[in-house]
Backbone:
């Protein structure tokens, strides 16, 4: 292969249509049609209908958790938990996460306090969490990233010892198992997202899980009067209900969940074996879990060895219609409004800055076949082999 065979330098892209990094599960038209016919026949669109109830029961069974409270999206779920736990003051969370983790806190009148992550796992660094705790800290929001988990027990321990509540954003973690327990069972509560790009998908949607029945009652009341099992007085309600249309898709996605996860595992393994010899490219292993959903394939690009920067590799891949991403760039502490607030971005986020500059996500999920991975890996291998020529041509 020559430099001119790359789409970036004028050749035809290797893929005629774009390959996304997100999951994008479609259940099949006939199944979808019959589920929707039933919704029409019942003439019941929302307000904790039969499909939403069925979904909650099935999620509780699947995760082995006492309460699953389905909501319209993950971000609303985070806001509802902040309200139900009556958190005040500052909340420690990693800066290396999706913007919604922090924005949900802002909507709840809380102040994010950004913490660094571990360089190898990308998960929140519990030693820094401990160092950041003071009297103004009301909670810790751990984030379970990349189909892995943060150090759940250490965070729960710190919370217990310091009298600070701990909850988790597990938007990446549906179906993952840590220490013999599925995510959904940790902290005061965990929030999942069922956005279209996540492995369990309701088009839009989410779910709060907790083993605390009292908290669950508060959350159901905060959601709205529909689906309340026990009436509790709450100061704010959210109308964060899930519709029957969302629940119908999520039920099909849950039915296919193990199949979809196994597909992802095969894709992930194939990337690992086909890219293992590329200097300066390392694929992250999901941390702290015995089973991952492999929702993402995350690579770290070390420029001195790969001989091209992450951003150049990204451009070359995107020209081929391989829609690789640099998730969470440039880190929440560098985004509006947080970058203007010296109290919450006090520096010391060295690993976050480093990871933001070097990590890259590759396509995985239902739309990606094994043959596609072979092609993607060939291109990456070729790009590395041609790196000297590519640099020369870029400098021209
Ligand atoms: C997707 C995601 C969310 C938000 O979920 P929505 O359902 O889109 O509101 C929150 N946190 C993380 C880490 C996510 O990846």
Residues:
């Amino acid at each position: 292969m020559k430099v001119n065979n790359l789409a970036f330098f004028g050749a035809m892209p290797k893929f005629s249509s774009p390959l996304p990094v997100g999951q994008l599960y479609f259940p099949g038209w006939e199944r979808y049609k019959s589920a929707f016919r039933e919704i029409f026949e019942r003439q019941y669109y929302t307000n904790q209908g039969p499909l939403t109830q069925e979904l909650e029961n099935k999620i509780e069974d699947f995760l082995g958790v006492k309460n699953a409270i389905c909501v319209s999206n993950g971000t609303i779920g985070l806001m509802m938990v902040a309200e139900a736990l009556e958190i005040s003051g500052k909340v420690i969370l990693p800066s290396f996460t999706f913007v919604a983790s922090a924005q949900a806190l802002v909507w709840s009148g809380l102040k994010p306090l950004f913490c660094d992550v571990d360089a190898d796992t990308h998960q929140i660094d519990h030693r820094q969490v401990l160092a950041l705790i003071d009297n103004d800290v009301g909670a810790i929001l751990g984030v379970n990233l990349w189909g892995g988990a943060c150090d759940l027990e250490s965070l729960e321990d710190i919370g217990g010892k310091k009298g600070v509540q701990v909850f988790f954003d597990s938007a990446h973690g549906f179906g993952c198992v840590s220490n013999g327990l599925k995510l959904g069972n940790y902290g005061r509560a965990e929030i999942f997202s069922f956005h279209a790009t996540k492995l369990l998908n309701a088009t839009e949607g989410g779910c709060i899980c907790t083993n605390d029945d009292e908290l669950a009652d508060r959350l159901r009341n905060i959601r709205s009067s529909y689906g309340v099992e026990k009436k509790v007085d709450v100061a704010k309600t959210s109308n964060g209900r899930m519709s029957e249309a969302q629940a119908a898709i999520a039920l099909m996605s849950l039915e296919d969940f193990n199949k979809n996860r196994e597909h992802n595992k095969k894709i992930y393994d194939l990337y690992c074996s086909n890219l293992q010899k590329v200097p300066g490219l390392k694929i992250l292993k999901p941390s702290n879990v015995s089973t991952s959903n492999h929702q993402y394939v995350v690579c770290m690009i070390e420029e001195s060895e790969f001989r091209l920067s992450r951003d150049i590799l990204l451009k070359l891949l995107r020209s081929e219609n391989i829609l690789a991403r640099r998730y969470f760039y440039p880190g929440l502490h560098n985004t509006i409004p947080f970058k203007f607030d010296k109290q919450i971005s006090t520096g010391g986020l060295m690993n976050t800055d480093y990871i933001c500059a070097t990590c890259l996500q590759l396509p995985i999920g239902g739309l990606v076949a094994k043959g596609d991975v072979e092609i993607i890996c060939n291109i990456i291998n070729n790009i590395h082999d041609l790196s000297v020529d590519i640099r020369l041509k870029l400098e021209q």
Notes: The longest helix spans residues 257-275.
